[in-house]
Amino acid sequence: MAVFTTVPEISAKDFISRWPAGAFRSITPIASGIENTNYFVDTDTGRWVLTIFEKLTDKTLPFYLSLMEHLGEKGCAVARPLRTKNGDLFDHYDGKPAILTNRLPGEDGREVTAPTCASMGETLARMHLAVQDFKLWQENPRGLAWWIETIPRILPIVPADIRSGLAHELQAQIALQGGEAWKALPAGACHSDLFRNNAKVSDIGTGHERVTGVFDFFFAGCVPFIYDLAVTMNDWCTDMKTGEFIPEREKAFLDAYAFVRPLSGLEKQMWRGVLCAAAFRFWVSRLSDFYEPRDAALLKPHDPEEFRRILVNRQVCDLYWPEASTD
Ligand SMILES: Nc1ncnc2c1ncn2[C@@H]1O[C@H](COP(=O)(O)OP(=O)(O)OP(=O)(O)O)[C@@H](O)[C@H]1O
Ligand SMILES: N[C@@H](CCO)C(=O)O
C-alpha cells in the first residue's frame, strides 16, 4: 500500500498544472513503496511520477532534490525533479511537499545477473564522478553518529545472543572511522541506499541487462565513495541466504566500477572495513525498525538477520579487487 495521501482526478489536474509537464490526462496510484505516496501521472508529454512526502519536510528536502537535479544535469541515469513553473524544486499537496520526476523506463531490479551488476557498477561510478563539484553537504543520516545514538537504546531489547556482536562492531567502526585513513578516502554526496528496489533495469533475460536509472535518494549523505559502493554491492552481489558474495557478480560489479572510476591503494586497504560498515548500517537500522517501530502503519520491517550474516561474512571472507589501481 503506497497511497497514504489520496489525490482525486479533479484536484490532480489543477495541481499538475503547476509544473511545465503538458496537459493532464490521468493519474494512477503506484502500489509498491512504504515511505511515501507515489502516483504515475500521464500528460500529453508522457508519463511522470508524482511523489508526496509523508515524513520528509521542506527543510530536509533541498539536499536530496538538488543532488538528483545535479546528477541529472551531468547526464547520470537518475530520477530528476522537474522544477515548477515558479522555478521551485517542490510544491505542496495537502500541506505536504510534493515533486514530479521523469518516469524511468524498465522494470524492477530485483532479479540480477552479472551483466546487471556491471551496468549498476558503471552507473554508480559515473554518479561518483559527477558529484565532485556538488556544493551541498549533509552528514550520512544513518552513519556513525546515528549508530552511537541508536545502539545503546536497542541493546537491551534485541536478542541477548547478538548484543556482543553489535557492541563489538560499533567499537571497531568508531576506531576505523575516527582514523586518518577513513578521513582521507575520496568522498562526496552519495545515494547510500542503492538497493535493487531503487533501480530500474531493461533488457531483462537477454544477458545484456542494463540499469536505466535510480531513484529514492532520501537517505543520501556525504560519505566515502567506496562506502556507497559497499552498500550497493552488499545488496546487488550477495546471496541473501548465506550472506556471501556471488563471485561472478562481485567481479562484474567491481571491474565495471573501476573501469570508470579507478580505485586507489588506500581504497583497497580500507575495503574490508568499509564493507563491514555498510553491512552494519543496515543491520542496525533493520534492528531499530524491528524492535522499536515508530509508525506501524507506514513501516514493514525488513529482516535484520540478512545483514548480520553479511557482516559476519565480510569480516573474514576472501575479497576480489580489480588489478589496476591508481597507486
Ligand atoms: N522515477 C521513477 N520512475 C519509475 N518508477 C518509479 C519512479 N519513482 C518511483 N517509482 C516506482 O514507485 C515505486 C515506489 O517508489 P519508492 O520505492 O521510492 O517508494 P517509497 O515509499 O518512497 O520508498 P521505499 O523504498 O522506502 O518503499 C517503485 O518501486 C517504483 O516502481
Ligand atoms: N534499503 C533499506 C530500507 C530503506 O533504507 C533496507 O533494505 O533495509
From TrEMBL:
It comes from the Bacteria. The gene is thrB. Signal peptide: none annotated. The keyword Kinase applies. Pfam families: APH. Pathway: Amino-acid biosynthesis; L-threonine biosynthesis; L-threonine from L-aspartate: step 4/5. This is Homoserine kinase. SUPFAM superfamilies: Protein kinase-like (PK-like). Belongs to the pseudomonas-type ThrB family. It comes from Mesosutterella multiformis. It catalyses: L-homoserine + ATP = O-phospho-L-homoserine + ADP + H(+).
